[in-house]
Description:
The chain is α/β, with parallel strands linked by helices. Helix content is 39%, strand content 13%.
Amino acid sequence: MVKQSSEALYAERFPKSRAxxxxxCGILPRGVTHDGWFMLPFPIYFxxxxxxxxxxxxxxxxxxxxxxxxxLILGHAHPSLVEAINRQSLIGTHFGGCHELQLEWADLIKExxxxxxxxxxxxxxxxxxxxxxxxxxxxxxxxxxxxxxxxFAGFADHxxxxxxxxxxxxxxxxxxxxxxxxxxxxxxxxxxxxEKALSKRDVAMVMVEAAGAFSGVTGISSSFYxxxxxxxxxxxxxxxxxxxxxxxxxxxxxxxxxxxxxxDLTSLGKILTGGMPGAGAIVGRTDVMEMLLFKDDTxxxxxxxxxxxxxxxxxLCASAGIATLKILRSGDPQKRASDMxxxxxxxxxDAIVDRGISGCVYGDSSTFHIYLSDCELRDECDRSxxxxxxxxxxxxxxxxxxINTTLNGVHFTSRGxxxxxxxxxxxxxxxxTIHAFSKSFDTLIKEGIxxx
Length: 452
Ligand SMILES: Cc1ncc(COP(=O)(O)O)c(C=O)c1O
């Protein structure tokens, strides 16, 4: 009897998810509500999550490494978060005005994040980055923004180049050429390229994903952090860290606290509200953030940076954020998540080596990244920070890996290579995960998709 391919097995295993996706395709333009959730033949529909696990509509259980796109370092439905949201929902989700929780939340952020002299709340990471660019342009009087290849920064028009090759071609249509003509994209870890890009003194801000592209798929060398700080200072350009994923995860104060580099502006999101929708803030230097100040009529009308947003600093997000940051302040949950991630990375690497497949599992803090091919830098690498900018991760292979791990009870990114470990993943979760990946690798070898 011919054995079914894993793809055919997936198509059969989840009839309720399939039916819901069919329905979705008739109402949601691409069947999903985030580009990153699109998956053929259909994505899985979930209906419950708790701790490190989630369940789908067909009744299957998963160990979850998507973790709310990195927001859920304390796992799903953490009791303190649930209590904070419930409590606040009974007494007001929007006062149409100021409330004390905004201050408690901002004070906590200031205590934890070294660059946070002032805090401005937004409704998402994308909005935080949009406001960062506006503040930097207003403060410096310059138009250009420098970005690094592969770094993601949300979906604002000005950052729709540089995220995927070819680097200067936008990753979306519908932009004005004008939107991106002031966005310059350069390679990471390249001092000469950075110096050249800033040398005309016309760059307002250098934007960097603080742990490198996609939280470290391609990382940043330790020395380049200081290089970025020194060169931006030399040319009076602002340095911006996008810590939307890394903030409160890599350490209570994010990558900047770990690396002891103080950017001028920092975008925060995700963990900021413990996973409550509406997570975003831009924080930074007082003089830059004071572009938002109200002063006299002339300043207000002609110089000031304007910012509105119905849900900025709303009580529900504030309550959830305060509960989360109070727990994360000690650094203990981050340490536990990192230790579990280290265990996962090592055992996954063993599973790859045992099967004679080319590849590597790497990552810093509580992340893991999988690369299934040869690497020229293999002998110079400690599998923490990957400096191979040229590696290519096959999308079809990633999809098949995701299909197979899903069949075996593990869910992570639909591109199949990256995950976030939380503080509530257990050793038993890691065992299940290694088993699921081992079975997935074996199937992909049998199907001739992965070769030894
Ligand atoms: C590094 C980075 N920047 C910005 C964003 C955009 O944040 P949001 O999805 O909250 O708009 C994301 C989201 O995944 C991100 O990972």
